[in-house]
């Protein structure tokens, strides 16, 4: 009786182990097969802006490595926080990503008291796509011929000039808020649903000036449809060698650059994050993809700087950096 019971228990245990092993193989196979369908990458701004351009360039190459198409979906609104919120609340299965940036994942907490996500806690960082220097630009017939004249003009006419931006919390808003604070001016702010629409109005002369990422501005500057006064980095950009730095042009304290990076919802499995990060690294090492980004003025990080941990550290540091700057400027 005892031996019979023992045999039955052993048989049951063996069967359970077999089922468990089968389930394990099934789950492992499912994870290994990722992705099995197209992936959506949310760009939280209108089509045509710098974040959109970078997302499409990177997604095109990543799709080849992953074997599934990455579909870019533009979800504009509230300085990029509408699309970022949707991404944060999506299923953490690797099929919804967001191309965030300095505004959505650095400046937004200081500008949106009721922000529905925490940049450092509600996302799984995938990797940094590109750094993007900031330019001070104006419509082509703006009176000032250089940055010193620009500063003097906007100070003397602060109540008359208008400044375009891609929405509260966007890079163009945050970086120009910093500029306005340093110059002690309060121009009329004209918000848009993205840099693309803002740039269109700058080209047509409907707005006076803006600050924004170099990506997307290079073709317009080279064509002479807008005027570039300075790049806010220590060194000139290879894509615009004739545009001086802010230090060279007489505004040494205005030093700022932006970045764009890929995030997944919090809880996305680490093996999926690893696959996505690998696809990103492969894309940024691809000669054609690199050239497209560099020609637009983008800055590509070294491999250690593209890791999920490096991006996590960047987000934490950016929130800490921009919170006092933006809260202080808005309280004046």
TrEMBL record:
Coiled coil: none annotated. SUPFAM superfamilies: Periplasmic binding protein-like II. Keywords: Receptor. InterPro entries: BUG (IPR005064), Bug_dom1 (IPR042100), TAT_signal (IPR006311). Pfam families: TctC (PF03401). The keyword Secreted does not apply. Belongs to the UPF0065 (bug) family. This is Tripartite-type tricarboxylate transporter receptor subunit TctC. It comes from Chelatococcus asaccharovorans.
